[in-house]
Amino acid sequence: MRGSNALFAIPLLLFLSCTAVHAQDTGNLVGQIRLRNGSFPAERILITLQTRGATLNSMYTDNEGRFGFYNLLPNPYHVVVEDENYEPFHQVVIINPTVLQTTQIHVVLVPREKPKPESPPAAASGGNPHLVNLAEYGKKFPREAIKEFEAGVKADESGQSEKAIAHYQEALRLAPAFYPAHNNLGIRYLSKGDFAAAENEFREVIRLNQEDAQAYFNLGTVYHLTKRYADASQTLQEGLKREPNSAPGYYLLGSVLSRAGDFPAAERHLKTARDLDPKMSRVGIELANLYLRSERPQEAIREFENFVQLYPKDPLLPRVKETLKKLKRSTQ
Length: 332
Known about the structure:
This protein is of the alpha+beta class. About 50% of the residues lie in helices and about 15% in strands. Strands 3-2-5-6 form a four-stranded antiparallel beta sheet, with no helix packed on it. Helix 6 (about 215-225) runs antiparallel to helix 7, helix 8 (about 245-260) packs parallel to helix 10 (about 280-295) and helix 11 (about 295-310) packs antiparallel against helix 12 (about 315-330).
């Protein structure tokens, strides 16, 4: 099952510690897009932020479906996705920085139904045999469990996290081996910061579905967030054995090794991630972080300069520019 990546933006950015703190009267909105089966969209998705009937800003997600809007005044905002491949998505989000500086949103997209071909194509070879649709789940699991799972997905789509958790738990009561429910339940726990519960769910996904590379990436992310870097490295490498061309996998592994102090290996893996996906903007930031940790400021400056040139619409651009300015001043 391809969709098991974590919801958190990994890794945290080192350079943010030296940037100016946001004014207390503005807030941030960050989120991540997934499909209803838990996987990422194959393409970047355009996210539009509207307020009072007008478009305030728009951006494309990164390769793991993440997006962010920053320095927002207190207001209700409308998060909108209108993509020809998916059903329209619209959700109202209240930004109130006096209560919560950064608001998170979980976007679940439903693919539009496509006309069936007159003769079905031959099955693709080399794919994950556990990537199945709900019709195929019906061959393995009780109908009642599938109905609970679908109800959980719908609750996720409407932002009702606790209701989604209850449905996934009921699906697992009816069918303990229903690994898609374990996966989605783990994602919900992870988004709440309940790392122990998330770890248990992702371990169970791997036990039931051992060839799922993304399940290893998920578990590795939990280890990363809880600073168990040796466990994270080993788990992420297991994922890469199963999906050796995963740019996000190499990115996560490089980030973990950078925090563990293995700078040569971290640099190698991060550069591999960039080779596999040159559009993954966060790789350059993580490389710059690595160079700062390893006292190579000139190389960090080059990475930040490349970021400014290559990603002029990235929401992190203002903070990168500010950091770059301070870094140049400190090295003169």
